[in-house]
Structures are given as C-alpha cells and as structure tokens.
Specification:
The chain is an all-beta fold and about 240 residues long. The protein has no helices and 19 strands. Strand 1 and strand 2 form a beta hairpin.
Length: about 240
C-alpha cells in the first residue's frame, strides 16, 4: 500500500481559477451535499490507501461516502496553466445549521488534514403582487417563520400606471427586525415607471414579520392621485 505523505484541498473555483490549500473552509445548505477533494502532488508516487473522513459533529454535517480510489485531475492555476494532482474525495451532507470540523486520516490513524464545514439554511418567501389606486396604504405583507433567522434580504419592485405625477412608495419592515426604505417613481410624463430595491435587515430571532407599504404623492401633491395605479411585488430570503 502506498501511503499519503501530505494532502491539500481544492478550496475555491473563481472565474476558471482553482485554489489549492492545506487548510480550507466550505459551506453547504441544509439537506444538501458537497464533494470535498483531497489532493496529492503529482510528483509523488500515486497513493493507493483509502482515507478516513471523520466529522467532529455528525449532527451538523456527516460524511455520506468517501472514495477509495485516486485519479489524476487537472487544476487551473490561471488562464494559461494547469497543474496535475492525484485526487480522492468525500461527499458531505448538511444536516443542521452550524459549523463542524472534518478530519482526514490515513489508514493507520495519522492526521493528514482538517477542513471546516458550515451548514447554512435559507428560506425563500414570494411576496405577491399588491396594488391600489391613489394615495394610501397597500395591504400588508406578513408571515411567520421558524425562529433563529439571523438576517433577511428583501427585494421589492414598484410600478405605476397612468402616472402624471411622481410618487413615493415607502416600505416598513417590522416584527423580528426594523427597517424602512423608499422607491421614488417619476411619473411626470404619463409614463409607467418602475424601480427595484434590495435591502438587508439584521433580525432578532423572532418569528413574526410584516411589511407595510404606503404610496404618497410627490411634487404633484394631491393632483391626480386617484387616477394613479401603483403595484408592488417582491421576495424575502431568510438566512439562518
């Protein structure tokens, strides 16, 4: 059996470039899988031993399977050069939000390397189209989520129809966090303007959320308000 002397990890793929490092951190969504590759320099003799991959906390992330074979792989060092390595891999599955350490050992128990695996959770919510004529409040968007969300990214789109004056649409997020933002829509020429916003809010761990929406007149205060139709839509992504 040909033993492994030293391993490195394929840690990042960015615009065609790969990064090989002796230490690495990975992220995986809950109930999803990632493949982690251990690399050995091609100048060494090809290993034949099967490595052991051990999670320090399998409740967070566990090793589903590991390869017992080594294959030659090409790693892009830059746009013009590729390096060759021997590679073997393990499949890791995210079970629970948190961070754990995966230790890679040889057949005789020697530690060859460790990697950090962070399990994340995202909850996506669609905000349905909501409209009204003239100045005033739209119906609220509201809901309830599982406790523990650390932040939320809010995407909104506002649009006017038959607009001869500008309008401001103000959004207020409340419940498990607090934030207010505004879309300004210039409808001064009878057009149908639209505007999109992306906002991130830190949360306090609560479960209830609400977004109230108000459309007010702008420079043309009070003029033609009833004839302007406003519509809003969007989405929420909660991060745990």
């Amino acid at each position: 059996m040909t033993s492994v002397k030293e391993i490195k990890f394929l840690t990042k793929r960015f615009f065609g470039d790969d990064t090989v490092s002796s230490s690495a951190s990975y992220s995986v969504d809950i109930n999803s899988k990632i493949t982690i590759s251990a690399l050995v320099d091609i100048t060494e003799k090809q290993p034949t031993e099967k490595l052991e991959w051990i999670s320090s906390n399998p409740e967070i992330a566990s090793v589903e399977s590991s390869s017992g074979t080594w294959e030659v792989v090409e790693v892009e060092k830059n746009w013009f050069k590729k390096d060759k390595y021997y590679a073997t891999s393990a499949v890791i599955i995210g079970n629970k939000v948190g961070t754990t350490t995966i230790t890679v050992k040889g057949y005789d128990g020697r530690i060859l390397g460790t990697v950090k695996v962070t399990v994340t959770k995202e909850v996506y919510v669609t905000l349905p189209a909501n409209g009204r004529n003239g100045e005033g409040y739209f119906s609220d968007w509201s809901g309830k989520i599982e406790a523990g969300a650390k932040s939320v990214t809010i995407k909104t789109t506002s649009q006017l129809s038959s607009a001869w004056r500008d309008r401001r649409i103000t959004f207020t997020y409340s419940g498990n966090g607090s934030h207010t933002w505004e879309d300004y829509l210039d409808g001064s020429f009878g057009n149908n303007p639209s505007e999109s916003s992306t906002e991130t809010v830190k949360l306090d761990g609560g479960t209830n959320w609400k977004i109230s929406i108000y459309m007010s007149t702008g420079l043309g205060n009070g003029f033609g308000s009833a004839g302007v139709y406003g519509e809003v839509s969007g989405s929420l992504t909660f991060y745990y």
